[in-house]
Amino acid sequence: MVEEVEEFKNANLYKGVHAVDLEELYTSGHRTCQGCESALVMRDFVKASGPRTVVTGATGCMYVANTSYMTTPWIVPWMHTQLAAGGASAVGMAAGLKALMRKGRIPKEKINVINFSGDLGAGDEGLGGLSGAMQSPYDLLVIVYDNESAANTDIQASGLTTWGAQTTFSPTGPAKRILHERWKKNLAAMMAIGHPNVKYVATSCATFPPTDYMNKVKKALSIGGPTLIHTIDPCPKGWDYHPRYSHVLGELAIKTGIFADYEIVNGEVRYTYDLRNKKRVPVREYLEKQGRFSHFLDEDYEYVQSKVDEMWDEWELPGILPIKAGLKVKK
Amino acid sequence: MVVKQEEKSVFDREELMTGTDAVAEAVKLVDVDVFAAYPIRPYTGVMDRLARFIANGDLDAEYIVADGEHSQFEIGKHASSVGARAFVGSSGVGWLYAMESIGVTATDRLPLVALVGNRALDDPGAFGVEHNDALLVRDLGWLLCWASTAQEALDTTLIAYRVAEDPKVRMPAAVAMDGGYLTHSQHMVRVPTKEAVRDFLPTYDLGNRRMHPDNPVSIAPQVNEDWVMELRKQNYEAAKRSRKVITSAYEEYNSIFHSEYENPFIEETNVEDADTVLVGMGSAAVVARSVANEMRKEGKKVGFLKIRWYRPYPTEEIRKALSNVSNVGIIERNFAMGAPDDGAITMHDLQSALYDSKNHPRVVDFIAGLGGREISKKEVRKMFEMTADKKSPKISWIGLRE
Ligand SMILES: Cc1ncc(C[n+]2csc(CCOP(=O)(O)OP(=O)(O)O)c2C)c(N)n1
Ligand code: SF4
Ligand SMILES: [Mg+2]
Which of A18, A151, B39, B293 has its CA at a distance of 20 to 30 angstroms from the CA of residue A308? Predict the structure, then answer.
């Protein structure tokens, strides 16, 4: 059941799955893999935002596999933008529409301005532009759909790939079992903490808890100003599992706590799935189901578990703010 | 000076202003909807002035200080895609930082207008003019022109919007000007009235290509080898069509604003009966013209040809003006390492324009004024003399420290 929160009383949140709109604004025509959760992230955000929406999509699977000439799945206006231009594309559209409405050249109305960008596009190359968008005065939403790799170019490691994963840029070999040694960037919190004016930042999984993601889109669009949603998207091709398990893996990403599910609304943290002081599903259950971790030894599972435990048990703001020692170091 | 009644009505005032000020004035006059800024010398002055317009309430536009040139140009591109008139600009390495966006703005056929305050590319650091920055986009689908005075900068910016937005063209346009020599030097400029500019420049209308919920288009989907050639051909045809659109835009500009742009693409000084002609772009034209006039008085049959529009390239105009001249020299404020004959960039375009004409002249190339080094009258005179001398080398560096 969705809580009735004062600031979202006009957001028309879905009260349960049966209330979700039946109209599809992202339909057939795309060529994404079976079990692609990123495709669901597309379908659901535009369902939640409705037809008065303009969308840009950064280069990536959700462009190349999604939007081929003459078979586009988009019912709403859609435009490609460059890999690192997600934030700027939203700013440009929002600024243009605002000026045209003010000058009376198009009717005044609320048009949702949304960009989606992948983890590599938004989290690495486009980080500066994303920051610029989060500083802007415009009503816009950037959805970072995170399939944990540069999926479109054949699964290369990004700054948001889980530690240790095999990708085409981080194969395992006799000299180096683990080649991808970067810990996943804490993207949503970085954006929230780095941009104090932003009223809404959330993480989410498209399928778990049900309707949560769509309602977060509605909240982001209703609160105003620049907003951000970071989703975790299981990708059968890149993560190496049977497509039937996409939803299972999404749910496990949340329940193990490796991907913290929360929203920050006007500076207030609300855990969507609160794992503080709770028994969490061991992270091994999530990792073991994915071929990209097939080279893991016990010590690797233990290492990832220790980092997840640290995140929930030692961080000042569990799962969100990686400050452990607090003011203690100053003594 | 007695101002005629009719002139009074199209001009608001006359004011001393720099090249970048003049462009800012034009951007205000076209009632730009969105502009995005990022600092780099020497183009920045235009944004400084536009920011002041916003602060003073003289301009109704969305003004964004971007996080970098890549974002700056993407903001302009996407604002243009929803039907807003947009403006951006940069210089040197900033222009290169935006290059990815510059490429797609052209292939998306969005009529963004940009100022390039020409600047040498790092390293090593130099604020001064070189044309390599702007010339890098010459084949990407941008309209590209050079202004040599502040008045021309204002006029050309207005004309650039008109040509870029014409449904027969719909290409982005870059107005280039020499860093320092024009961006920062002051000239008297006649500033038109808003009403007169409105008569000259229709409202920007992207028609059935605009991004709006009432017009649900998909722009720039993945096409691969299936359609890219057809799209390139459309762009190619638009570039060809732009020549006529430029011509008619200047005709109308001349008639509304009583200006005297005889030929939109090139400007000739004593070329008609000359034996020896120097060719150049940008602020070098000012010095070269005055030397050409001096030498005429001494009885030497020399002339100067300024190229204003570099893309589309004025093939026919160049052919007509230079086919029967004996000697042509080019002043190049750019470099092209390892190019044919080791000449700089514009020599190759000029030679290829003349190749098919019956009596093409001997062409020599002068690499001069790089990094903002001054091109003196003495040096221009030397270039005229070397051009006339059949024994002089094909390529010479002028003003180089021995
Ligand atoms: C500037 C630039 N660099 C590289 C590429 C090549 N490229 C296309 S898609 C892509 C991967 C994008 O990864 P991500 O943003 O995570 O999206 P995904 O493909 O995973 O959906 C890359 C590297 C590009 N298109 N543009
Ligand atoms: S590779 Fe992954 S992200 Fe790309 S279409 Fe397939 S499942 Fe979706
Ligand atoms: Mg990705």
Answer: A151
Q: Is the pLDDT of residue A3 over 70?
A: no
Q: Extract the runs of DSSP E, i.e. beta strands, from chain A.
A: 53-58, 78-81, 112-118, 140-146, 200-204, 226-232, 262-265, 268-271
Task: Name the residue of A38, A43, A153 to mutate for ligand 2: max ligand atoms within 8 A of Cβ.
Answer: A38
B75/A91 Cβ within 8 A: yes
Residues with CB under 6 A from ligand 1: A 59-62, 83, 118-121, 147, 149-153, 158; B 100
Residue A273 sits at φ, ψ, to 5 deg, of -130, 100
Of B62, B82, B221, the CB nearest to A67: B221
Tell me phi and psi for residue A203, to 5 degrees.
Answer: -110, 160
**CATH 3.40.50.970 given to domain A6-313:** yes
Fold that domain B11-257 belongs to in CATH: Rossmann fold (3.40.50)
Q: How confident is the model at residue B22 (pLDDT cuts 50, 70, 90)?
A: very high
Q: What is the average pLDDT score of chain A?
A: 95
Distance CA B355, CA B370 (A): 28
Whether A92 sits inside 8 A of B74 (CB atoms) is: yes
Other C-beta atoms lying within 10 Å of the C-beta of residue B333:
32
Domain B266-397 has CATH 3.30.70.260: no
pLDDT, tens digit, 9 for 90 and up, residues B99-139: 999 999 999 999 999 999 999 999 999 999 999 999 999 99
Domains B11-257 and B266-397 share a fold: yes
> What's the ipTM?
0.97
Three-state DSSP class for residue A74: strand
CB atoms within 10 A of CB B5: 7
Contact A67 B222 (CB under 8 A): yes
Q: The tokens of A78 are what? A: 């859609």
Q: CA-to-CA distance for B304 and B266, rounded, in angstroms?
A: 10
Stated length of chain B: 402
Domain range list for chain B: 11-257, 266-397
The partner residue sitting opposite B67, judged by closest CB among A54, A68, A132, is: A132
Which one of A69, A125, A131, A135 would you mutate to disrupt binding with B, by most B Cβ within 10 Å of its Cβ? A69
Task: Express each pLDDT in A237-275 by its tens digit.
Answer: 999 999 999 999 999 999 999 999 999 999 999 999 999
CB contact under 8 A, B218 and A98: no
Contacts of B34 in chain A (CB under 8 A): 92, 95-96, 99
- pLDDT per residue over A34-60, tens digit each? 999 999 999 999 999 999 999 999 999
